[in-house]
Amino acid sequence: MIVELTKEETEAIMEQFNEDMVNAPSHYQSEAGIQCWDAQLAAVGRAGFIAHCRATALKYCWRAGDKDPRTEAEDLRKAVRYLEKAIEVLERGSL
Questions:
Q1: Cross-strand pairs, 52
Q2: String of b and e for 55-80 (b: at least 16 CB within 10 Å)?
Q3: Is 73 left (phi over 0), alpha (psi -120 to 50) or beta?
Q4: Alpha-carbon torsion 79, 81, 86, 90, what sign?
Q5: C-alpha angle with apex 26: 56 to 61, nearest 5 degrees?
Q6: Are 40 and 29 in contact (CB under 8 A)?
């Protein structure tokens, strides 16, 4: 069975494949455009956010590639991203 897609449907599918799953996954942004990072920082404060980032980086390193060996490098990039966010808050005081 061959299914023909409209231009809009094709573009939507391609956008999903091109999404940056490390730096800007769409499922971490609210409909109002609020990034999850910002909500977390506001909810738990600077020290809590930094602790969360450290723990999450550890988690990504710990299980890198376990779900899917093909995504091991992506998992490690996610760990680095969380450490970069912690450093950003440490150095600038905010995101």
A1: none
A2: ebbeebeeebeeeeeeeeeebbbbbe
A3: alpha
A4: positive
A5: 20
A6: no
CA 84 and chain centroid, separation: 12
At 19-67, the pLDDT tens digits run 566 666 666 677 787 888 888 999 999 999 999 999 999 999 999 999 9
pTM of the model: 0.68
Count the neighbouring beta carbons within 10 Å of the beta carbon of residue 41.
20
Does residue 35 sit in helix, strand or coil? Answer: strand
Q: Which of 82, 91, 68, 92 is nearest to 36 (CA)?
A: 82
Sign of CA dihedral 20, 24, 27, 32: negative
State the pLDDT confidence band at 95, using cuts at 50, 70 and 90. Answer: confident
Task: Tell me which amino acid residue 20 is.
Answer: D
